[in-house]
Amino acid sequence: MAGALIHIENLVKKFGPFTALNGVSLDVYPGEVHALLGDNGAGKSTLIKTLSGVHQPTSGQIYVEGKPVHFRSPRDASAAGIGTVYQDLALNQLMSVTRNFFMGREMTTGPRPFGVMQMREMDRIAHDEMVKIGIDISDVSQAVGTMSGGQRQTLAIARAIYFGAKVLILDEPTSALGQKQQMEVLKTIKRVRARGDIAIIFITHNEIHSKLVADRFTFLSLGEVIGSGTKADLEGEDIRRLMAGGAEMADLEQELATI
Ligand SMILES: Nc1ncnc2c1ncn2[C@@H]1O[C@H](COP(=O)(O)OP(=O)(O)OP(=O)(O)O)[C@@H](O)[C@H]1O
Ligand SMILES: [Mg+2]
Fold it and tell me: Spelled out in words, what is the top-level CATH class assigned to the domain 6-91+165-257?
């Protein structure tokens, strides 16, 4: 736990009689990518929704920088530095890159609500913050709808960091993209990692992507941690078996052989 930005201890989340998380513990460190892996229904989204204040835990405890936290809403989690980039990215396709970057947090001069928006300054910040993590949008007044999927991910990530995220949670950021754009997003993740001060939780179904960028791995199956470790701890074979919920290749073959 020492040095962990996030420490999750024995987290349980029940939906009525159903147990979605059954005693999950994990640590996330600054400057590291922590891959969260597991099959459909394993509890990955439930875990990050609990971490980002959407759900309240049934029991267990979350610590941020060593202090116990109790998030009652996503706003609470955000204020504590938990930045979550959901799959839909919460972007408005018709609005400009800059307006999306600031969305609701615009810089104005003069008293609200009559203040004048500082468009030039906002354009500069949006542009520069995205350059830092790898994309150079020449015209930030263009609509987000004209950007590629990878660029949109980068915008959502740059925005979360600029507004104070210490922990960046990425829920399947590469799943809806083509090969080239997937690589763009992985590069963005690497650049954020290289800053050294941000902890990244990377949810993916893609074994190769996790191996390309992650330092640490946690495998969930039916709400429980079935394996975890650093890259060095885990052999390639292990990762594959754990991705399949702990099933051995031979078991899977046998399952298919009965048909
Ligand atoms: N709000 C809810 N109410 C009841 N059950 C839920 C709720 N949210 C999730 N579950 C159940 O909890 C289990 C874990 O779901 P979760 O969405 O966390 O899985 P996941 O690992 O994110 O899967 P996927 O890879 O498909 O996104 C599933 O069985 C799901 O049906
Ligand atoms: Mg999910």
Answer: alpha beta
